[in-house]
Amino acid sequence: MTKQLIARAPTIVNLGLGDFAATAREVGAAALDIAWRPIGDGDPRLAWLLAQLAGDPADPESPGARIDRANQQAVARVLAAQPMLVDVVAHAREAFPDMGRTLLHAGPPIAWERMCGPMQGAAIGALLYEGWAADADAARALLARGEIAFNPCHDHGAVGPMSGIISPSMPLFKVRNDDAGNVAFTNINEGIGKVLRFGANGPEVIERLRWIETALAPALKRAVTAIDGGINLKAIQSRALAMGDEVHSRNAASTSLFLEAITIPLIQSDLDDAMLREVLRSIDGNSQFFLNLSMVSAKATMDAAHGVAASSMVTAMARNGVTVGIRVSGLGGRWFEAAADTPVGLFFPGFKAGDANADLGDSAITETAGFGGFSLAASPALVQLVGGSADAAVAYSQEMYDITIARNPALALPRLDFAGAPTGVDVRKVVDSGIRPVFTTGMAHKVAGIGQVGAGIVRAPMVCFSQALVALAESLGVG
Fold first, then answer.
1. Are 333 and 466 found together in one domain?
2. Which structural domain range is residue 444 located in?
3. Whole-angstrom Cα distance, residue 292 to residue 224?
4. Rounded to 5 degrees, what are φ and ψ at 139?
5. What is the mean predicted confidence (pLDDT) over 164-187?
6. Rounded distance between C-alpha atoms, residue 476 and residue 61, angstroms
7. Could you tell me if residue 270 is inside a domain?
8. Are residues 427 and 330 located together in one domain of the fold?
9. What is the pLDDT of residue 34?
10. What is the CATH number of the domain that holds 356?
11. Virtual CA dihedral for 104, 215, 253, 314, nearest 10 degrees?
12. Residues 354, 347: Cα–Cα separation, whole Å
């Protein structure tokens, strides 16, 4: 009799934990699970702040309406951005004249003693490259004494992958946003294997850095400066999305497109044939060469949207291997930080989950601008990172629409009927929905110098966004 009554009853709608629905199904009832979580992770204060900061069309002077207008202004700057590669600066100290004996690093600020293994290893390598120390032990002692300053790349309008270390003698790509006029910088991708960004600092690493400084960078400078107006990086990124890149963890198509753009100017330069072949081979043999350019393109784009009063749009997400930090357009230079998670994904043969360092690198600036995990639907080659399902990759991109302000028509995703990529993370939407931004990323071994151990998926910590929401409310006089 009970089962007969249940069979005629309406479907049970279950919110939250699935135990009730499971019990109902055991006795034959139809049950529909709804993915729901309390607003603000169940924190009453966050829920109240969200209610006060929600847009109110009936009151254009309400805090929420002010935020909505500010966000439209900020995201319009993102959509209008025109990042152009215009130069290759011979040395970072020319871009940052006050740099002195300073190393720039990925992520929010961090002191030497708190740095993860890969970042410490990269810092040691930078000292050897600069000639500030005779060997690794001397470099480590110098760093431990606090004689070398550290600053985030982001504080200097720059970005760097993984450890992100930039030292004064390193050459830099210079990108100008032709729409807003701001500029951004990044170092040149070293290739794969034992490289500085993963903490390697042996003689072969230093030799490679010197070749980049003395041979590759000058050659690229000749070619880039010969192109009227520079190279349109946004156009390359847009085309690459249609060719299977998400332009963060996969850059095979974008690297090929960059090589296409640079080859004729290189041939027409005064490089001798041997050097020309060496430069072309170095780019062609490194499918991740465009990664740094994708990052600096995104940096030039998002910096233009920073500083819009009352905006809740995120303009930077970055990781130092210990913490993740975000910056918000309307909240100045403040970092909102929380402990970094470890990515989950595929490991190279011989490595396992316990080998991976916590999330590391400035490359999440690509997601901040709508690439990477936000455009994962465009990259079927990366589906194994999400369990081998193309539908799962699509689902990540679709999920990101729920926490963003706009769709970027210049970043069309073929698998989503060429819808624009989700762009402009809104702190309010992240806290309200409980959906955290997703990053595609490489994984570094936690021991310096071993290198990349795999690639995977990781999300930004919710605490970063909760902190930012509280700060935004306070800035608007909401409590």
1. yes
2. 63-79+302-475
3. 16
4. -65, -45
5. 98
6. 11
7. no
8. yes
9. 66
10. 3.90.1700.10
11. 20
12. 11
Query: Could you read off the pLDDT of 350-359 as tens digits, one per residue?
Result: 999 899 999 9
In a 3-state reduction of DSSP, which class is residue 359? coil
The 10 Å Cβ neighbour count of residue 100 is 10
Q: How many CB atoms lie within 10 A of CB 154?
A: 29
Query: What contacts 8, CB < 8 A, 6 or more positions away?
Result: none
DSSP state letters, 133-192:
-SSHHHHHHHHHTT-SEEEEGGGGTEE-STT--B-TT--EEEEEETTT--EEEEE----S
Token output for 36: 């729901």
CA angle 34, 40, 44 (to 5 degrees): 115
pLDDT of 6 strictly over 50: no
Query: How far, in Å, CA of 46 to CA of 53, rounded?
Result: 10
Identify whether 440 is part of a domain.
yes
Q: Do 69 and 190 belong to one domain? A: no
Both 397 and 441 in a single domain?
yes
Measured between alpha carbons, how far is 399 from 382 in angstroms, rounded to an integer?
17
Q: Is residue 46 part of a domain?
A: no
pLDDT digits (tens, 9 = 90+) for 302-313: 999 999 999 999
Q: Could you tell me if 69 and 117 lie in one domain?
A: no
Q: Which 8-state DSSP code applies to residue 322? A: S
Q: Which residues contact 352 (CB under 8 A, 6 or more apart)?
A: none
Per DSSP, helices labelled H in 288-370 are 291-303, 365-368
For 178-332, where are the E strands, in sequence order? 183-187, 231-232, 314-320, 323-328
151, part of any domain: yes
Do 15 and 73 lie in one domain? The reply is no
224: left (phi over 0), alpha (psi -120 to 50) or beta: alpha
Q: How big is the CA angle at 96 (ends 313 and 295), to the nearest 5 degrees? A: 40
